[in-house]
Amino acid sequence: MKIVTCVAPVNIAVIKYWGKRDDKLILPLNDSVSTTLSTEHLCAKTTIMISSEFQSDRLWLNGREENCENPRIQNCLREVRKRAAKSGNNENMSAWNVHICSENNFPTAAGLASSAAGYACLVYALSRIYEIDGDISAIARQGSGSACRSVLGGFVQWNKGDQDDGSDSLATQLAPANHWPEMRILILVVHEKHKKISSKIGMEQSVKTSELLKYRVSHCVPQRIQDIKQAILNKDFERFAEITMKDSNQFHAVCLDTFPPAVYMNDVSHAIVNFVHCYNKLKGHNALAYTFDAGPNACLYMKEHDVPKVLGLLSVIFPFPGEEDSYIKGIPINKDTIPQEMQAAFGMEQQMEGSLKYIIHTRLGNGPKELKSQNEHLLTESGVPKNLVV
Ligand code: PMV
């Protein structure tokens, strides 16, 4: 018997992946670039136990048993086992089954992308159990495309690759998290009423129907990738912010150009876009940037010294009902009190109370890691979850 527990981070794309050239191997049409967030505030945690006693592979997600036959889970298991067999490690374990138990440290109901952290954590924990070395991004990619970027910390590029077998479609680190320590992130969790279209379905429809997606892939993304890499290496926030916002806008334009359209942003998301542009106008330069994935929540980037003012203005424009402490989670911070004149000069109407559920204040972070303490395991010694939801 062997047991390991690992945590893996969430990543947020600043140049978006949208559209596959191979649905089965999950190969993208374009390169993408992301930032990895700290596991302190957002992460997936996974315990894997392998034993000759287990009758079958089993999986529990957030306390509930799930079907382990899910093709994406099976892809990851098969690829790791193949790699382990090649390396000749732990041959006695090759016929053993695994029990997998995974939890997020943030509410799944918040609608935050959790699959990237989840698959990265699964693959990383499997790689520790089977003791395989080398790149694991190509395996994580086959769970969920964006998961390949969560196996590394800091700023990460997923190279689309050109080979048909996907062997060169890998993630690489552009810079570690400590390259830009002043960078801060606010996740604005927006109240959601509608059930969203999954990214898998949305992408398939866009590839089939959007003319704009073709133009984006051939004419826009290659230059943006070069430019944002330069901005990151030079720690040029202005440039980073501009490219990030433009790429988010273009990605959602592609979604609207899809037929039928895939609508992910809502009125609150658009009010956040307006907020960011008002803030930048007030400052006279791009001090704040937004990006939106396949949902209404916003991810805002800024430098550390801007956080108190941004939070002060957010709480004026998007008033919170009830106790403030429960609305701003993550790194503790005192927000600025906003004087009347600044509020008037800001140029934006106050939004309906409660249009934001809460805010997570976080920073950049490292890739997945193993937690060595026995207390961290999510499975008991007999291989069942400690926290079962009944
Ligand atoms: O990997 P998926 O299928 O969850 O797709 C992620 C797509 C976006 O989040 C919208 C963009 C990205 O690059 O993460």
SSE layout:
Layout: E1 2-9, E2 11-15, E3 20-22, E4 27-28, E5 32-36, E6 43-51, E7 58-61, E8 64-66, H1 71-87, E9 97-104, H2 115-129, H3 137-140, E10 155-158, E11 171-175, E12 183-190, H4 199-209, H5 211-233, H6 237-257, H7 267-283, E13 288-292, E14 298-303, H8 307-317, E15 328-330, H9 340-346, E16 356-363, E17 369-370
Parallel strand pairs: 7-9, 15-16
Antiparallel strand pairs: 1-6, 1-17, 2-5, 3-4, 5-10, 6-9, 7-8, 10-11, 12-14, 12-16, 13-14
Helix pairs in contact: 1-2, 5-6
Bound molecules: (3R)-3-hydroxy-3-methyl-5-(phosphonooxy)pentanoic acid (PMV).
The site of (3R)-3-hydroxy-3-methyl-5-(phosphonooxy)pentanoic acid has 14 residues, from α4.
Kindly describe this structure:
The protein has helices spanning 71-87, 115-129, 137-140, 199-209, 211-233, 237-257, 267-283, 307-317, 340-346; strands at 2-9, 11-15, 20-22, 27-28, 32-36, 43-51, 58-61, 64-66, 97-104, 155-158, 171-175, 183-190, 288-292, 298-303, 328-330, 356-363, 369-370. The protein is globular and about 70 Å long. The protein has a 6-stranded mixed beta sheet, with helices on one face. The protein has a 5-stranded mixed beta sheet with strand order 13-14-12-16-15. The chain has 2 domains: 2-176 and 369-376, 2-Layer Sandwich (Ribosomal Protein S5, domain 2), CATH 3.30.230.10; 183-363, Alpha-Beta Plaits. The longest helix has 23 residues, at 211-233. By secondary structure, the chain is an alpha+beta fold. Helix content is 32%, strand content 23%. Helix 9 (340-346) links the parallel strand 15 and strand 16. Helix 1 (71-87) runs parallel beside helix 2 (115-129) and helix 5 (211-233) runs antiparallel to helix 6. The structure holds (3R)-3-hydroxy-3-methyl-5-(phosphonooxy)pentanoic acid. (3R)-3-hydroxy-3-methyl-5-(phosphonooxy)pentanoic acid binds at residues 13, 16-18, 32, 113, 115, 144-146, 199-200, 293-294.
